């Protein structure tokens, strides 16, 4: 039984995983309302909230002085905000000492990489190893506020980064675009909400700053294009055009994500396609990835909405499903925006 701890940013989260059954409990405390007035996450405030929330969450999980059935502790050790990661690791190690249990470090991005397979495991836990192996090689896309990464898990379960952003992440581009439009934090969901009522063909934004045959993403030019467009518009014109602008801007982000993914599908021999990360909760993006998988006859695996953001369930699952990617012993904080081992 694994107890997982996630504190890479502004979510304090615990989860319990039973390899024979799947995720048996999740407990999360969100800080969105706290940071909303600042227009983004304030690291010092986030760290303070983790310190305040961990023990109430532990009690909610039915654990305190007694470790119950827990046999291993897993904790996010990067990437993320250094202060938040440090508190999570300190909490995990204090529990490990008190309960005399081993503790392992999980890379947050590896958690996202494996999160689409949580549902596959829960459907038939005993059959999961064979079912997962049949999906390899697997091409996965992680899309979040801090990362945009295409990776592959080969038949030996080795994970390799194939492409990543050279500037803004896709989620960052959506949030910055929302800020330019005067939308409240968090901005990405606001853009999606307005885009649902808009026409993406009215306003044309650059859809592939980086050539599609290059293994990299770039979104900073998209944000600049939006700023130049807004400088030419009055308040009344902008208000009337807001749904169409949001639709066009969102479509430009999705087009680049899908375009790069399509190129790598064509260049490889993957059997399955995955989507995860906070931005993967965007319905238009999910639909586009599903269509892409169907077109190339790939098995499609998208993280459940509750496992797209910062959550401890994916940390617990990665500790179970990806033992080769774990940090053992006296591991340290790794706040770098890369997958472990890359």
UniProtKB/TrEMBL annotation:
Keyword flag Secreted: no
SUPFAM superfamilies xrefs: Actin-like ATPase domain
EC number annotated for this UniProt entry: 2.3.1.234
Pfam families reported for this sequence: TsaD (PF00814)
Record keywords: Acyltransferase, Iron, Metal-binding, Transferase, tRNA processing
GO terms assigned for molecular function: tRNA N(6)-L-threonylcarbamoyladenine synthase activity
Cited NCBIfam families: gcp_kae1, T6A_TsaD_YgjD
Name this protein carries in UniProt: N(6)-L-threonylcarbamoyladenine synthase
């Amino acid at each position: 039984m694994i107890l997982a701890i996630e504190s890479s940013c502004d979510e304090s989260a615990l989860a319990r995983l039973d390899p024979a059954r799947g995720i048996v409990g999740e407990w999360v405390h969100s800080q969105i309302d706290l940071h909303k007035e600042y227009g983004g996450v304030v690291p010092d405030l986030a760290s303070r909230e983790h310190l305040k929330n961990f023990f109430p969450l532990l009690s909610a999980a039915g654990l305190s002085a007694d470790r119950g059935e827990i046999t291993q502790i897993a904790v996010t050790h990067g990437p993320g905000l250094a202060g938040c990661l440090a508190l999570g690791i300190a909490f995990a190690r204090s529990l490990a000492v008190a309960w005399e249990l081993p503790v392992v470090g999980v890379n947050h991005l590896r958690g996202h990489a494996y999160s689409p397979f949580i549902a596959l495991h829960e459907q038939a836990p005993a059959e999961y190893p064979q079912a997962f192996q049949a999906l390899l090689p697997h091409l996965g896309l992680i899309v979040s506020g801090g990362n945009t990464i295409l990776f592959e898990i080969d038949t030996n379960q080795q994970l390799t980064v194939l492409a990543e952003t050279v500037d803004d992440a896709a989620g960052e581009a959506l949030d910055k675009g929302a800020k330019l439009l005067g939308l409240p934090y968090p901005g990405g969901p606001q853009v999606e909400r307005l885009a649902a009522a808009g026409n993406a063909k009215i306003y044309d934004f650059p859809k592939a700053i980086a050539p599609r045959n290059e293994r990299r993403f770039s979104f900073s030019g998209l944000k600049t294009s939006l700023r130049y467009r807004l400088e030419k518009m009055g308040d009344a014109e902008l208000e009337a055009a807001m749904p169409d602008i949001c639709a066009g801007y969102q479509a430009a982000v999705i087009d680049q994500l899908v375009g790069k993914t399509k190129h790598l599908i064509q260049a490889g021999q993957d059997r399955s396609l995955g989507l995860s990360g906070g931005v993967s909760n965007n319905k238009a993006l999910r639909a586009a990835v599903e269509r892409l998988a169907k077109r190339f006859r790939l098995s499609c695996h998208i993280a459940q909405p509750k496992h797209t953001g910062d959550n401890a369930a994916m940390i617990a699952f990665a500790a179970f499903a990806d033992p080769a990617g774990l940090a053992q012993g006296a591991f340290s904080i790794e706040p770098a925006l890369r997958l472990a081992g890359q």
